[in-house]
Design goal:
The complex is a heterodimer of chains A (153) and B (667).
Chain A lengths: L1 H24 L9 H9 L18 H16 L3 H12 L15 H26 L7 H12 L1
Helix pairs in contact in A: 2-3
Chain B lengths: L1 H29 L2 H7 L2 H21 L6 H6 L6 H6 L5 H22 L7 H22 L32 H11 L1 H13 L5 H31 L10 H26 L3 H23 L15 H21 L1 H4 L11 H33 L7 H21 L10 H24 L5 H28 L6 H25 L2 E7 L4 E4 L2 E13 L2 E10 L4 E2 L2 E4 L7 E3 L1 E3 L4 E9 L8 E9 L1 H19 L20 H5 L14
Antiparallel strand pairs in B: 1-10, 2-3, 3-4, 4-5, 4-6, 6-7, 8-9, 9-10
Helix pairs in contact in B: 1-2, 1-3, 1-7, 3-6, 6-7, 6-8, 7-9, 8-10, 9-10, 9-12, 10-11, 10-20, 11-12, 11-15, 12-13, 15-16, 16-18, 17-18, 18-19, 19-20
Classes of the chains: A mainly alpha (153), B alpha+beta (667).
Chain lengths: 153, 667
């Protein structure tokens, strides 16, 4: 037991250090965001209507600036992020939101990769089991002679 | 004149490819060695045709021959020379031409490299495959993507020049050719894979012979993607470098499957296993480059890169279908010969780690592909229009990327066959502490958030593991210990860690704001002060720029600008960036003052560690070059698939225990 502890002491110490560091550091970055931070946060989840893939937070197009102003107005009015997003979706259409919906057919975009990953992992597990059950191949003397001959030649 | 020469070049390349296919296929099927031998010669004709076409195009661009529609649309008398030359790849037809000449170059290179193997049917079929790809691309240039269409123009006509975004940063001259060298380079291993499937010689020979070609293609693709991110950062003015834009995704997809391949191919070289899987990965990689061309050049998906749209979509999609069909068909046909007798003893082994790597890269590629095409699917299924953007990709890829970092930390220490707990405890201890200390340091510095902290900790762990391998190897062999695939690969891993850390930091700790400022007024953001001094108008040959003069932290003055190009409706913003080792201050001019001395809107983005993305890319490039150089010479009698005897356990310790085959028959 003491031998085990001695061998694993550095690892146990590391575990403690990591757990303590993460519990200190993983808390919410910022529990009281400023208005600008909230505007940036909501705008980064909304597509700029006139440009292509950029969010309204990043784009310098006029339409994106208009959306930022609208978001700021509503943040100051005290609306929640969800309410602002719902308003923007009703005004510009569902596809203004960069995050796809989690329900309906569109929800598959969230589910399929997880299913694929699980299937892949299960397949690998089955393969490992099958490999393990397979009888090991042991070289016969004839095999060894063949190899020796090849190496000498 | 240029049009005639160019057309002739394209036609020459097309016909040579056609004749090459006919000659080689006849010779191979009917067993006529003289036909097989002469078939190789057509590569030089394809190259000559491609050179002629590119020469004609460049001559037309440089002399502003506007009778060519492509030149008239993408050039102007006032375009600077660099962007005139780079104008060739600023629109669809010219990029297909670039594709064509790079493919011709690769085909010529393999024809020369394997000149003593012309009688080998495997090589013959590989050439046929390469010719078919060339036939398709030069065929496109004869049909819907003809770069040499002519038109009559009035005297004194001047074109609009390239898209304004494509003529304000020199990276434009390097990013597309690098990317295409990567894309097209995967044709080589793909061609040899098809050759080995057709001839039924499915041993490891062709893998070894094309290994360096694959690494080269992978390295070019890596550099091309990173240069593209850099270009996006320096030019587009949105303060970021990766938008999960369909075109970025299209270049990233073959990189993901290609990366999976260069790892799992080591299992095949060593153990003779995973043949079907590796062939599938190669075919996936090559077909994804074609799919990427379809997605980005057909206009089905909106993208900042959709600089031109045309009718080549259905043709490219058909070719993609053909590649997938032929690939899958050949694998099914050869299925019985592809089965291997080997077994992987334990999931906790080098082989097991490579399989986990493949699972994760596969999942990563699946997420990126699904997210890219999903809006098309929902719209086709039930007419629902949705967007799949950054929040989706960030949420889905972060866990996969973290798992990959963890794997990168553990895998280099794993021996082949089977690892014992004792061995791992011993080997991983210092790297793990490296990660732990990195984590503690980050928390002590006040950094918060689970995902970035996990990235920094795992990054430290992975960097420690890579450094440990490099130190062990260098201690045994000196400078030579840095050469070869395994050691060069560890340097690539270091580059990946640098990029991962920089990516996590810049995504998690950025600040952004816009300020309306009068001349002389200052604004503060995240500890930095920006002072707006005023604007000045500067007239260039190809544009009129309004430059804002902004002082950062009482230091140098930076000039973000808005430029008006003659034929563009909207002003094009150009950011100005103070680059630093710790963070970048990124300035844009959002709105220029309405009257002289009025107020302007200045956008400010503070992003940490962005410089390290490009440095990490450089490290990856250096690592790739080192991994292509021959490392420790292997005795030619060592079998590549021989298991490592347990008596030589200390030998396994060395990172170069992966066999290096420095001599290739015919070299």
């Amino acid at each position: 037991m003491t031998g085990f502890l001695r061998r694993w002491a550095p690892w146990l110490a590391l575990l403690v250090v990591v757990v303590v560091a993460l519990s200190l550091g993983a808390g919410r970055k910022n529990s009281h965001p400023t208005v600008t931070q909230r505007v940036n946060h909501v705008a980064s989840q909304v597509r700029c209507p006139t440009c292509r893939e950029l969010s309204a937070a990043e784009s310098d197009a006029k339409a994106a600036a208009a959306i930022r102003i609208e978001i700021r107005r509503r943040v100051v009015l005290g609306q929640s992020d969800g309410e602002i997003r719902a308003f923007l979706a009703s005004r510009y259409g569902r596809d203004i939101l960069l995050k796809p919906p989690a329900s309906g057919v569109a929800g598959l975009v969230w589910v399929l990769p997880v299913v694929a990953l699980i299937c892949g992992a299960v397949f690998l597990g089955v393969m490992f089991r099958r490999w393990k059950d397979r009888p090991a191949l042991h070289p016969t003397d004839a095999d060894r002679a063949l190899v020796d001959q090849a190496l000498r030649g | 004149m240029n049009a005639v020469i160019g057309q002739a070049g394209v036609l020459l390349a097309f016909l040579s490819a056609l004749l090459g296919i006919a000659t080689l296929a006849t010779g191979l099927v009917k067993g006529r060695p003289h036909l097989v031998r002469s078939g190789r010669g057509y590569t030089f004709l394809i190259l000559a045709g491609a050179l002629l076409a590119v020469g004609a195009m460049q001559h037309a661009l440089i002399t502003h021959d506007f009778s060519l529609r492509f030149v008239a649309n993408n050039n102007s008398r006032s375009t600077p020379l660099l962007y005139t030359v780079a104008g060739m790849w600023s629109a669809l037809e010219g990029s297909i031409l670039l594709w064509g000449i790079i493919l011709a170059g690769y085909l010529t290179a393999i024809a020369i490299r394997f000149r003593q193997r012309v009688d080998d049917p495997l090589f013959g079929w590989a050439m046929v495959t390469g010719f078919v790809v060339a036939l398709f691309f030069f065929g496109l240039m004869l049909g819907p993507a003809n770069p040499f269409r002519t038109q009559s123009v009035p005297l004194g006509f001047d074109g609009p020049g390239p898209n304004p975004l494509l003529q304000n940063h020199p990276l434009m001259a390097f990013h597309p050719p690098m990317l295409y060298l990567g894309y097209v380079g995967f044709t080589v291993p793909f061609a040899f894979a098809v050759g080995s499937l057709i001839t039924g010689r499915l041993g490891e020979g062709w893998l070894v012979e094309t290994r360096r070609w694959t690494l080269f293609a992978w390295g070019f693709l890596t550099v091309g993607i990173i240069l593209g991110a850099w270009w996006s950062y320096e030019v587009l003015g949105w303060g970021g470098f990766w938008a999960w834009d369909p075109v970025e995704n299209a270049s990233f997809l073959p990189w993901l499957t290609g990366t999976a391949f260069i790892h799992s191919v080591m299992v095949q070289e060593r153990r003779g296993m995973l043949r079907v899987w590796n062939l599938s990965l190669l075919i996936a990689t090559f077909s994804l480059t074609i799919l990427g061309t379809f997605l980005t050049r057909s206009g089905v998906l909106d993208s900042v890169h959709a600089f031109s749209q045309s009718s080549i979509g259905p043709l490219v999609l058909a070719f993609f279908g053909l590649v997938v069909l032929v690939g899958v068909g050949l694998i099914v046909w050869r299925g019985d010969r592809l089965r291997s007798p080997g077994a992987i003893d334990s999931p906790v082994s080098r082989e097991g780690a490579f399989l986990a790597n493949n699972l994760l890269f596969g999942a990563f590629a699946f997420v990126v592909l699904l997210g890219t095409v999903f809006p098309l699917i929902t719209e086709a299924v039930n007419g629902q229009r949705i967007s799949v953007g950054r929040p989706y990709f960030d949420r889905m890829t972060t866990p996969v990327a973290l798992a990959l970092l963890f794997l990168m930390a553990v895998a280099p220490a794993l021996p082949w066959r089977k690892a014992s707990t004792e061995l791992l405890r011993h080997r991983l201890q210092w790297p793990a502490w490296g990660g732990g200390l990195a984590l503690v340091a980050c928390v002590a510095l006040g950094l918060r958030g689970l995902a970035p902290l996990a990235a920094f900790g795992l990054g430290g762990f992975a960097a420690g593991a890579a450094l440990r391998q490099l130190v062990l190897s260098a201690r045994r062999q000196g400078v030579r210990g840095l050469l070869g695939r395994a050691n060069g690969g560890m340097i690539v891993h270091l580059g990946v860690v640098v990029i991962a850390v920089a990516f996590a930091a810049s995504a998690s700790y950025a600040h952004r704001a816009e300020f309306r400022l009068n001349p002389g007024q200052s604004a503060h953001l995240a500890g930095h002060t920006v002072t707006y001094l005023g604007t000045e108008d500067v007239r260039y040959p190809n544009r009129l720029s309004t430059k804002a003069r902004v002082r950062i932290d009482d230091g140098r003055v930076y000039t973000p600008s808005l430029s008006q190009y003659p034929f563009a409706t909207q002003a094009i913003g150009t950011p100005s960036v103070r680059t630093g080792g710790f963070n970048d201050v990124y300035l844009t001019l959002v709105t220029s003052p309405e009257k002289r001395g009025g107020s302007a809107v200045i956008g400010v983005v503070i992003k940490p560690l962005v410089l390290w993305l490009w440095i990490g890319g450089g490290i990856m490039a250096i690592g790739t070059i080192l991994s292509v150089l021959p490392g420790r010479r292997r005795r030619p009698t060592d079998a590549a698939s021989a298991p490592v005897p347990s008596a030589r356990a200390d030998e396994v310790e060395a990172p170069d225990s992966i066999p290096e085959i420095a001599t290739v028959p015919g070299a």
